[in-house]
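Late entry, written up from scratch paper. The run itself happened at the end of the previous shift, but nothing got recorded in the book at the time, so transcribing now.
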Amino acid sequence: MNGIDSQKTYRGKIKTWNEDKGFGFVNVDELPRDVFLHISLLKHMSREPKQGDYVHVTVIEEAGGKLRASSGRIEGVVAKSTKPRGNHHKQHKQHKQHTRHRRSYSGKSDSRFARTVRSIIFLALVFVAIDAYQLYLGGGTTTVSDAPTQLEKQLAISPDTQPAKPRKPRQAQRSIFDEPEFTCDGRQHCSQMRSYEEALFFIRHCPNTKMDGDNDGIPCERQF
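Output as recorded:
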């Protein structure tokens, strides 16, 4: 291989560089021919190479004696930092895992809550059924439909639910033949009457009485 060491790093100067096609040739004093250099080997550098740059390359010899760079870097140019990208990727991955874990935990919590609610409803129905069955057994041969409910019993006992006693109709009109014997003696006001019958007699038979203000035939409504 004419003394080409593929493990050695050679220092050379970019003799020509084609920016459009992304390749060029490096002149290395130690080597008999120029070395072919492709842009893909310098993607990790912070800028693209240009003619006149010094580069450090490892070289392999291909069939026909052509020399080609297998790795390289631009002298005096800082390489791109790949650590932030790794950290960003790691953080993104951790965020996705955390989101997936949170969703999974939320789903488990919702499912656990739903099971708890169903269990509570089931137990409540069981207690209601037991209570109804005991009520049925306590009633003897009386069916559930015939037995009065507790609410009906309370309503029957409560004095507020008792039906109002019918009022006795006030005897607004009396027969003239039932009236006792009274005499028109000049009295005109309710305060002068001794009974409802006497006031009724006065408004029917005596002039200038003042005991029936609304003229409904019933005297002294507030007094008797």
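The helical segments are 83-138, 150-157, 196-205.
(Scratch paper discarded after transcription.)
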